[in-house]
Specification:
Elements (H helix, E strand, L loop, with lengths): L1 H15 L4 H14 L2 H23 L11 H21 L1 H9 L2 H5 L6 H31 L7 H25 L3 H18 L6 H4 L1 H8 L2 H13 L6 H21 L4
Helix pairs in contact: 1-2, 2-7, 3-4, 3-7, 4-7, 4-8, 4-9, 4-12, 5-8, 8-12, 8-13, 12-13
């Protein structure tokens, strides 16, 4: 009943304001705060991981394997990617799948608000949350655990843009092909677990070795972590990982555009 009331309120506000996008964005953000599952996983969970691996790094000083990085060094980009992953796979597709399942996207197509604006609003909200995740992880690791990064700003900005574009494109794929909220939760949960593993949450690629190391490095989350890791330590980004991220983005975007349905 509350959800119906809020949705009707959104339709009324959008129509009264002539379909102004800013009004839609405000209402969508209010709805996101009322169902903060994606926000919690995308922001709170990275903070929890930051504390956990910061404590581990303090207790286990030195480099991991032959990587030349400490535990905290290796896990800062991993934590950021995990935050992006939950925002993209939970925060982004959940409202879109819900709106389609209850017929809201079909209804809104008859109002001055284009359904594409709802997608744009969700993207903006989750991009803002992704920025918050970056600030929490970078600033928190420096202030709380004394991490010292030599961030190459151009490299870092490029790696963040490519990483977010890739992972959010995958989130839109989920929104495009999953028919119900129940199915979305199962698919998003399975993908998030897989991407966390490939990002090196439980075992780093250098520790895995062999074929598994290569798979992890060139997986969607693994390539993102590797690119971010190089950028926060002022190293040139490997062109192979850049190309990998671009290819994944193009493929995911094509699938999302091809199969997305408003009803």
């Amino acid at each position: 009943m509350r959800m119906t009331s809020v949705l009707n309120d959104r339709e009324s506000k959008s129509e009264n304001s002539g379909g102004h996008f800013f009004e839609l964005l405000k209402v969508e953000f209010r709805l996101a705060l009322r169902t903060p599952f994606g926000i919690g996983l995308g922001i709170v969970l990275p903070f929890v991981f930051l504390i956990l691996f910061g404590l581990i790094s303090s207790a286990v000083p030195g480099n991991v394997g032959n990587s030349g990085y400490t535990v905290l060094d290796l896990y800062v980009p991993t934590i950021m990617v995990i935050g992006f992953t939950f925002l993209a796979l939970v925060g982004l597709p959940l409202p879109l799948v819900r709106y389609r399942e209850i017929g809201w996207l079909r209804r809104v197509s008859t109002t001055p608000v284009s359904p594409s604006r709802i997608l744009a609003a969700q993207l903006i909200i989750n991009l803002i949350l992704a920025l918050a995740t970056i600030l929490i992880v970078i600033i928190g690791s420096e202030l709380i655990f004394g991490a010292t990064f030599t961030v190459a700003i151009p490299y870092f900005v490029l790696s963040v843009i490519l990483t977010v574009a890739e992972i959010f494109s995958l989130g839109i794929v989920v929104a495009a092909i999953v028919p119900t909220q129940t199915a979305q939760q199962a698919v998003s949960g399975g993908l998030a677990f897989l991407l966390m593993f490939l990002a090196g949450l439980w075992i780093q690629p250098v520790q895995a070795g062999g074929v598994l190391e290569t798979i992890m490095y060139y997986s969607p989350s693994g390539a993102a972590v590797r690119t971010l890791l190089d950028s926060v330590f002022n190293q040139a980004l490997p062109y192979t990982t850049l190309v990998t991220l671009v290819v994944y983005t193009v493929v995911f975007a094509f699938i999302a555009i091809r199969y997305f349905r408003w009803e």
